[in-house]
């Protein structure tokens, strides 16, 4: 009975402090507000945080993280997880680098090399996404286990592949300029990577809000059984989200690799937590069903700004990690609170 | 009176400024069964949640055996001797029967350590099970018990806590007829031992048979407090809905076109589930399927809709063979399926009314699954459908279906399938757990469907409902058809006999 009374409830009137808190927790702009608060709080100590160079640095840091987070968001929205995102980055990119490297690359010097490398990197992203998705959706294995193991497998494979192609074994360098410019280059002062991020962000937003697939993702995330009975190809939807996650990881990998000017087998090992953390901070529920592109953008921005501020203050890498860890834990707590509030109303 | 056990006086309760209960007062006599009746949303559950300590009242008094009580939570209420047996049972399926019964008051061994005395546990559990006539070994995992026996375990659990008052909320919704019968025997025995019982149910026939007194609630107010002997089903129904419903089932002309077959089954079998099912469902016909739970009726529905596989036989829709194993294929052939598990399978509870209504028909609204859906267009479609099936809600795109009453939720499920324009509509327990008014509306929608030439396969545990609605009834037992009855030959007894035929 208490259920049926809930829909007659009206907001408005005077808000009590608890209600204000609840509104704030469920607001989409909470994280953005926190970002600004944080900047204001550290600004007296490190005024250079608002310098033009630093703001550009933050934005450049945000771009690949945001692209990878878009893919993970879709996976989380169907109540799965992709821990292998960064390993897909690493493996696809060392393979890509081995094609174009001047030091004995398969297509070294060819004008088509960079295009082929990009296609191969994306293809590997798709293939590994398919593998993750197939194991999760059709073999009915928990995605946590599947992607934890594929993460280890892809990482190991990336190191092995690098060792096979170089004497040093640590990275595949000497990448051609046409590839390297994908990292920081651009047209009319707008970096290519930034254009890619905006397109992917808008595309994902459109996908979620405007297409059948978007509605399917939400339905599968909230209730896969009801989705199945409604004729939704639940398994195909899950596979698709993993494939998109693989593609996003590959694109983020291209950007990182171009910036590093080398294919690194340990690429992205440290940013897995950032990707997961940013999506959760951005309001994507680990329980599935909810997620917004703008929210994830705010999450990525917040985490990057926090990271940047802590580094400017000269904190050691280990303290930065500890603080970021607690921030993400706090975000997960907010997710639980939000979930409870929805369940209660 | 000295033999009043529970006395509720002027209970008020509001949520967010909306008054849900207004001066609710009633008494429960010692050794009596009180039927608490009302439509969904009338305040039954809120009242019981106040008595059971799950909610706190705004004002009013509750006295138990003459002493005022104010349980702050379910545990308090239990300690006071009030047991609440919910519609959805709260047993742990992975634990054994005895562990469930004694979960929060395990008998302990003497000594400083909190060690469970397994022997005492077994003995006490056996005693408790004997009280409810359950002959299952106490060590059986609850997951292996049928639904009806699980309920008995709940009752045994209440008895071990020395409950003085047991509240049953819709106890028979998931029980088969013999299980319900056994439950009623136990309730009668408890009553004869001086236990008081509050019985909440939509099935008025049961209430008339079982209860001593009834209280009817409507819009949070007590409309009637009467001994059962002085009332009738018709009278209760009119008290519940505030008007009189002369006929529980709306009239329908015969539309059945026996020359054609909308859905045809030939020897459909799946080992251990169903055997050799053959029938033709004609356009404009309502074919009822009767049978006990576990008779294979819901399983058959799932097979037809492609959710479960079948080993042999053939299913055709409008003369075309239906490929097995895919709900999408079944839907494309024009089949719709309302499941018996509304919350688990029928609806995405967190999503809005519009999202739910649109879910199965989304692909029809776009050229591909990645192509654009016009938001205004699809919302308008959902709004039109939700008005057509009379969903009552503040907003169709902001109200989550979780916030709706059972009847409104069911209308959302029906709406979502109507939007696919089905030719064959399989309804599995379409009126389970919804109130009289909503039931009537569901029946009207069914009549409209068949008037437009659709075929309906209607599964129900309520024989009266099938007798009232169906053109023909197939009775199932142990996965096999036990006979077909035409409208002229509908007879409650004969149908029951066929269902129980072993």
**Neighbour order of strands in the largest sheet of chain B:** 6-7-8-3-9-10
Largest sheet of chain B: 6 strands, mixed
CATH superfamily of the largest domain in chain B: P-loop containing nucleotide triphosphate hydrolases
| CATH class call of chain A | Mainly Alpha
Structure summary, number of beta strands of chain A: 2
- The overall pLDDT average of chain A reads 88
Our count of domains of chain B comes out at 3
Number of strands of chain B: 20
Write the layout of secondary structure elements.
The complex is a heterodimer of chains A (345) and B (502).
Chain A: H1 2-6, H2 17-26, H3 30-42, H4 52-77, H5 85-100, H6 113-138, H7 143-165, H8 177-184, E1 186-187, E2 190-191, H9 192-210, H10 212-222, H11 224-229, H12 234-260, H13 272-281, H14 293-312, H15 317-344
Antiparallel strand pairs in A: 1-2
Chain B: E1 4-15, E2 18-29, E3 33-37, H1 44-51, E4 59-64, E5 67-69, H2 74-80, E6 82-85, H3 97-101, H4 118-131, H5 147-160, E7 165-169, H6 177-192, E8 196-200, H7 204-210, E9 213-218, E10 221-227, H8 233-241, E11 263-270, E12 274-281, E13 286-290, H9 297-304, E14 312-317, E15 320-321, H10 327-332, E16 335-338, H11 342-346, H12 353-358, H13 362-365, H14 375-388, H15 406-418, E17 424-428, H16 436-451, E18 455-459, H17 463-469, E19 472-477, E20 480-486, H18 492-500
Parallel strand pairs in B: 3-8, 3-9, 6-7, 7-8, 13-18, 13-19, 16-17, 17-18
Antiparallel strand pairs in B: 1-2, 1-4, 4-5, 9-10, 11-12, 11-14, 14-15, 19-20
Helix pairs in contact in B: 4-5, 14-15, 15-16
């Amino acid at each position: 009975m208490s259920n049926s009374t809930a829909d007659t409830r009206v907001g408005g009137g005077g808000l009590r402090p608890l209600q204000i808190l609840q509104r704030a927790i469920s607001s989409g702009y909470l994280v953005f507000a926190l970002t600004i608060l944080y900047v204001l709080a550290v600004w007296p100590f490190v005024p250079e945080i608002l310098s033009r160079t630093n703001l550009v640095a933050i934005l450049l840091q945000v771009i690949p993280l945001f692209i990878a987070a878009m893919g993970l968001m879709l996976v989380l929205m169907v109540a799965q997880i992709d821990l292998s995102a960064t390993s897909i980055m690493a493996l696809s990119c060392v393979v890509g680098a081995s094609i174009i490297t001047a030091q004995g690359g398969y297509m070294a010097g060819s004008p088509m090399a960079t295009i082929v490398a990009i296609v191969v990197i994306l293809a590997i992203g798709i293939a590994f996404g398919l593998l993750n998705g197939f194991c999760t959706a059709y073999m009915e294995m928990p995605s946590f286990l599947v992607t934890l193991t594929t993460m280890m497998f892809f990482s190991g494979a990336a190191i092995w592949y690098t060792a096979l192609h170089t004497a040093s074994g640590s990275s595949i360098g000497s990448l051609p300029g046409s590839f390297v410019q994908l990292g920081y280059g651009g047209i009319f002062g707008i970096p290519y990577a930034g254009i890619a991020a905006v397109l992917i962000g808008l595309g994902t937003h459109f996908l979620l809000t405007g297409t059948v697939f978007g509605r399917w993702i939400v339905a599968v995330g909230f209730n896969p059984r009801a989705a199945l009975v409604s004729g939704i190809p639940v398994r195909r939807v899950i596979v698709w989200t993993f494939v998109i996650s693989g593609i996003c990881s590959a694109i983020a990998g291209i950007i990182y690799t171009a910036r590093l000017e080398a294919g690194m087998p340990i690429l992205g090992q440290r940013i897995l937590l950032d990707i997961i953390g940013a999506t959760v901070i951005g309001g994507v529920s680990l329980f599935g069903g909810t997620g917004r592109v703008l929210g994830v953008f705010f999450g990525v921005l917040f985490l990057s700004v926090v990271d940047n501020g802590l580094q400017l203050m000269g904190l050691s890498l280990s303290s930065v990690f500890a603080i970021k860890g607690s921030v993400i834990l706090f975000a997960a707590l907010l997710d639980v609170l939000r979930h409870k509030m929805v369940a209660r109303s | 009176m000295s033999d009043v056990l529970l006395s509720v006086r002027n209970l008020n309760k509001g949520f967010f400024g909306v008054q849900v209960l207004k001066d609710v007062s009633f008494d429960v006599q010692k050794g009596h069964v009180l039927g608490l009746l009302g439509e969904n949303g009338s305040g039954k559950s809120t009242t019981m949640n106040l008595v059971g300590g799950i909610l706190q009242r705004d004002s009013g008094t509750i006295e138990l055996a003459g002493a005022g009580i104010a349980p702050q939570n379910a545990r308090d209420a239990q300690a006071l001797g009030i047991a609440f047996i919910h519609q959805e049972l709260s047993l742990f399926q992975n634990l054994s029967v005895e562990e469930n019964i004694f979960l929060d008051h395990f008998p302990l061994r003497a000594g400083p350590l909190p060690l469970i005395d397994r022997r005492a546990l077994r003995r006490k559990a056996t005693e408790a099970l004997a009280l409810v006539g359950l002959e299952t070994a106490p060590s059986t995992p609850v997951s292996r018990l049928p639904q009806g026996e699980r309920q008995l375990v709940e009752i045994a659990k209440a008895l071990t806590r020395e409950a003085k008052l047991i509240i049953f909320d819709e106890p028979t919704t998931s029980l088969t007829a013999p299980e319900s019968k056994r439950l009623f025997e136990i309730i009668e025995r408890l009553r004869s031992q001086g236990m008081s019982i509050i019985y909440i149910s939509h099935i008025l026939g049961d209430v008339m048979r079982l209860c001593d007194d009834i209280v009817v609630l409507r819009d949070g107010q007590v409309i009637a407090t009467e001994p059962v002997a002085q009332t009738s089903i018709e009278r209760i129904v009119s008290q519940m809905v505030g008007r009189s419903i002369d006929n529980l089932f709306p009239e329908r002309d015969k539309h059945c076109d026996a020359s054609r077959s909308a859905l045809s089954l030939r020897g459909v079998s799946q080992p251990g589930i169903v055997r050799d099912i053959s029938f033709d469902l004609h356009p404009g016909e309502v074919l009822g399927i009767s049978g006990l739970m576990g008779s294979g009726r819901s399983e058959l529905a799932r097979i037809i809709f492609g959710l479960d596989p079948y080993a042999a036989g053939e299913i055709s829709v409008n003369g075309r063979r239906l490929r097995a194993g895919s709900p999408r294929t079944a839907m494309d052939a024009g089949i719709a399926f309302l499941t018996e598990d509304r919350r688990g399978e029928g609806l995405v509870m967190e999503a809005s009314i519009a999202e739910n209504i649109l879910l199965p028909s989304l692909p029809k609204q776009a050229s591909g699954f990645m192509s654009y859906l016009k938001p205004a267009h699809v919302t308008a479609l959902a709004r039109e459908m939700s008005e057509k099936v009379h969903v009552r809600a503040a907003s169709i795109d902001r109200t989550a279906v979780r916030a709706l009453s059972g009847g409104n939720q069911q209308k959302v499920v029906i709406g979502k399938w109507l939007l696919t324009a089905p030719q064959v509509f399989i309804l599995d327990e379409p009126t389970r757990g919804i109130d009289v008014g909503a039931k009537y509306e569901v029946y009207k929608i069914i009549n409209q469907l068949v008037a437009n030439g659709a075929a309906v396969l209607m599964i129900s545990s309520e024989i009266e409902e099938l007798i009232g609605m169906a053109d023909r009834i197939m009775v199932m037992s142990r996965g096999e058809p036990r006979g077909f009855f035409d409208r002229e030959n509908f007879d409650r007894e004969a149908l029951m006999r066929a269902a129980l035929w072993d």
